[in-house]
Design goal:
Helix content of chain B: 25-40%
Distance between the termini of chain B: 36 Å
Structural class of chain A: alpha+beta
Shape of chain B: globular
Oligomer: heterodimer
Radius of gyration of chain B: 16 Å
Number of strands of chain B: 5
Distance between the termini of chain A: 51 Å
Radius of gyration of chain A: 19 Å
Largest sheet of chain B: 5 strands, mixed
Structural class of chain B: alpha+beta
Helix content of chain A: 25-40%
Number of helices of chain B: 5
Chain lengths: 287, 175
C-alpha cells in the first residue's frame, strides 16, 4: 500500500521543528530514518496530519566524546554508529548491538534517535540505553531537558516525550577500559526484531565483579533492567555457578506477554539461556 | 504542504527532475515518473529488499523513502550498473553462476551485494549470507546468488585498486 495524504515539512533547525510540532498539537509525526514509520504509513497504521522530516538538519548527526560519555546526535545513522571508531572504542556494546539492527540497507537510513523514540521494546537500542544507564536530551518550546533511559519508555511504542518535544541527543557513559560485554539475541530470521535480546556488560576486579549490567529486549512493554540478577554477580563473582544463578534470576525477573511470535514461557526460557550466553561471552572479553 | 513538489536528483549520473505529491514513495517516483522500472516494488515495508537502490553510494530501501526526501541526492539503480553495453562484473557473475531465476529480487540483490562488497571487499561465505539476508528471493535460489557474489568479490577488488568504479563513497571501514 501507499502512504495516506499528509502535510509535509522539512525544517532546517530544531527550533523550527519544535514550533511545527506545537502547531499540530500531537497530530504530527517526526520522520527520522523512516525504517519503522514509513512501513506504518504504507500500511496506513499511522495517519498523521503532518510529517515533520528532520533529515535536513545536519546539526543533529554527530558522535562526540565528552568527559566520560559519548554524545550521539539523534539523527546519527545506525550505519555511522556501526563504523564509528569512537563507538567501537568507547561503546563496544552499542557497536555489537548495531549489527543486530535490521540489515545494512536498513542501517543506512535508520537513526539512534528514531529507534529510541519509536520505543519498540523488542528493538536493540532501547535495551542498550537501559543497560548502559544512558540518558536522552529532548528539546521543547521551553528548552531542553534530560530523561534517564527508564524515564523515556512508558509502554509499547510510547515514550514520555511531549508531542512538541524532539529527541535531540543520546548520551551514554563510556564503558570502562577492559569491560566485558555481549549482545545476544534470538530472532526467527536474521534482521528481524528480537524475540528476546540481552545486553550485558561486566567490569571485573580479579575474580570479583565490580559492576554488572543486564537488560532485556522483547520481554515486556519496556526494556527490562535485570538489577536483581546483576546483584548476584556483584555479590558472588563471575564463576560458572554465579552466572547460572544470575541467568535463572533473570528469567524470573521478566514478565513477557505471549504473542504470535512466541509464548510468554518461551520468552522467559530464552531470557535465561541468552543471559547465561551473554555473560559467558562478556567474561571471555573482560580484561 | 501536500501539493506536488519539485524533486531534482541525480540518477545513475544524470540530472533528473519531476513533480510529485510529498506522499509519493521514491520507488514509485523512479518507476512511474522517471520510467526506471528496473527497481522492483515488493512488500512496501522494507522486508523483502527488492526495491534496494544506492542513495549516496549506500544501499537503502526505496519503499521506505519519500521521493521528496531524495531531492538533491545521488542515486544508483540497476539501470546504472552497465557501462557502454557491458554488464557490470557483479551482473556478469550473476549470469555465469545462475544467480537469478525469476529475476524479481535481482535488482535488490545486485545493489545490496555491491554495497556489501564495498564495505567488506573480502567477505567470508557466512558474511555474504548475512549480508544477503537483507533481500528475499522468492524462488529461494540463494545458492547461485552466494556463488555469484563470491566470484565477483576478487574482480571488484581488482577494479577498486585500479581506481575505477566511483559511485560515491559509502560509510564503511574505509569510508
Amino acid at each position: 500500500m501507499k502512504p495516506p495524504r499528509f502535510e509535509y515539512h522539512a525544517p532546517r533547525s530544531v527550533d523550527e521543528t519544535v514550533e511545527l510540532l506545537g502547531r499540530y498539537g500531537g497530530d504530527a509525526k517526526v520522520l527520522a530514518g523512516g525504517q519503522s514509520l514509513m512501513p506504518m504509513l504504507n500500511f496506513r497504521l499511522a495517519r498523521p496530519a503532518a510529517l515533520v522530516d528532520v533529515n535536513r538538519i545536519p546539526a543533529l548527526a554527530y558522535v562526540r566524546e565528552e568527559d566520560g560519555a559519548v554524545a550521539l546526535g539523534a539523527m546519527t545513522r545506525q550505519r555511522t554508529i556501526e563504523f564509528s571508531p569512537v563507538v567501537a572504542r568507547r561503546l563496544p556494546l552499542l557497536h555489537e548491538a548495531t549489527r543486530w539492527v535490521g540489515h545494512l540497507p536498513i542501517r543506512s537510513r535508520g537513526t539512534i534517535g528514531g529507534s529510541l523514540a519509536h520505543a519498540d521494546p523488542s528493538a536493540e537500542y532501547p535495551a542498550v540505553l537501559t543497560a548502559l544507564d544512558g540518558e536522552v536530551v529532548a528539546q521543547g518550546p521551553r528548552g531542553r531537558r534530560t530523561l534517564r533511559g527508564p524515564e523515556l519508555f512508558e509502554t509499547y511504542l510510547t515514550t514520555r516525550l511531549a508531542p512538541d518535544e524532539l529527541l535531540v541527543e543520546v548520551r551514554l557513559p563510556a564503558m570502562a577500559a577492559g569491560a566485558g560485554f555481549a549482545f545476544e539475541e534470538f530472532a526467527r530470521r536474521h534482521g528481524d526484531f528480537a524475540i528476546v535480546g540481552i545486553a550485558a556488560m561486566i567490569v571485573r576486579d580479579g575474580a570479583r565483579c565490580r559492576t554488572a549490567r543486564l537488560a532485556a529486549a522483547g520481554t515486556g512493554p519496556v526494556p527490562a533492567r535485570l538489577r536483581a540478577a546483576e546483584e548476584i554477580l556483584e555479590r558472588e563473582g563471575l564463576g560458572a555457578a554465579a552466572i547460572e544463578a544470575a541467568a535463572a534470576r533473570a528469567s524470573e525477573l521478566v514478565e513477557p506477554d505471549s504473542d504470535v511470535h512466541a509464548s510468554a514461557d518461551y520468552r522467559r526460557h530464552l531470557t535465561g539461556v541468552l543471559t547465561a550466553r551473554a555473560l559467558r561471552r562478556a567474561l571471555e572479553r573482560a580484561g | 504542504m501536500s501539493e506536488p513538489v519539485a524533486v531534482r536528483l541525480t540518477v545513475n549520473g544524470m540530472p533528473r527532475e519531476g513533480r510529485c505529491a510529498p506522499r509519493k514513495l521514491l520507488v514509485d517516483f523512479l518507476r512511474e515518473d522517471l520510467a526506471l522500472t528496473g527497481t522492483h516494488v515488493g512488500c512496501e515495508h522494507g522486508i523483502c529488499g527488492a526495491c534496494t537502490i544506492l542513495v549516496g553510494g549506500e544501499a537503502a530501501r526505496a519503499c521506505l523513502m519519500l521521493a521528496v526526501q531524495a531531492d538533491g541526492a545521488e542515486i544508483t539503480t540497476v539501470e546504472g550498473l552497465m557501462t557502454d553495453g557491458v554488464l557490470h562484473p557483479l551482473q556478469e557473475a550473476f549470469r555465469r553462476h545462475h544467480g537469478l531465476q525469476c529475476g524479481f529480487c535481482t535488482p535488490g540483490m545486485l545493489l545490496t551485494a555491491l554495497d556489501l562488497l564495498r564495505v567488506k571487499p573480502e567477505p567470508t561465505e557466512a558474511e555474504i549470507r548475512e549480508g544477503l539476508s537483507a533481500v528475499l528471493c522468492r524462488c529461494t535460489g540463494y545458492h547461485g546468488i552466494v556463488k555469484a557474489v563470491q566470484a565477483a568479490a576478487p574482480v571488484l577488488r581488482q577494479r577498486a585498486s585500479g581506481g575505477e568504479g566511483g559511485m560515491g563513497s559509502p560509510r564503511g571501514p574505509r569510508g
